[in-house]
Design brief:
With 205 residues, the chain is an alpha+beta fold. The protein contains six helices and eleven strands.
Length: 205
């Protein structure tokens, strides 16, 4: 089996949002939407800080679809549009999506976006990887783990472009892979473990 995933080194994440922008550009994500977000932990403001001057600290939490092994979104989808593929990625069949947004409500990570309107882009045209399928009004969107790239043996664009090398990509079912080693050696954890969704995205410091 194959279970593709990403591990994120929060100590190396500098909150630059390169991952978010690289994802948006590569996947032709419409204006006003992001598949990949970088949150500033412990505050409500982007790039805020915890503590009182001069004793301030700041840490970042990159978050996108967690490609869960027990995905809540998949369980509630009435049409089978949300599915797990043979590489362990949670994907969306846009032709089957009826826009009911059940998956959006079920996801505890707030990791989906919805095309309320016809997709618009500031450029006036599509951009990014030509292999990425177009999405129409009325369907869900989310991180695909750069399906088109990873199917071709390439790494996800967020991994490729991270200037801090904070992201490790690989197969969780290969005990000798870099991601498996990193998770073991750094006691990596997952978000909202108590929800039982078994996310495949891991974090470590």
């Amino acid at each position: 089996m194959t279970r593709l995933a990403i591990a994120i080194d929060k100590h190396r994440c500098i909150g630059c949002n390169t991952c978010a922008n690289a994802c948006k550009m590569s996947n032709n994500v419409p204006d006003g939407m992001l598949w990949n977000r970088v949150l500033t932990e412990g505050v409500d403001l982007y790039d805020g800080a915890q503590g009182s001057y001069p004793y301030l600290s700041r840490s970042y939490l990159p978050i996108a679809c967690q490609h869960c092994d027990n995905a809540a979104c998949q369980r509630v989808c009435p049409t089978g549009a949300t599915y797990k593929d043979d590489k362990g990625r949670i994907e969306i069949d846009y032709d089957k999506c009826i826009g009911c947004r059940m998956c959006m409500a079920a996801c505890p990570y707030n990791a989906r976006t919805f095309n309320w309107n016809e997709p618009k882009r500031a450029t006036g045209f599509d951009y990014g990887d030509a292999r990425v399928p177009a999405r129409r009004k009325g369907v869900m969107e989310k991180c695909t783990l750069c399906k088109e790239r990873t199917d071709a043996g390439e790494v996800p664009m967020c991994v490729l472009c991270c200037p801090g090398d904070a992201r490790v990509y690989g197969d969780l079912d290969d005990p000798d892979s870099e991601i498996s080693r990193v998770i073991r050696d750094n006691h990596a954890y997952v978000l909202l473990e108590e929800k039982g969704t078994k996310p495949k995205v891991h974090y470590f410091n």
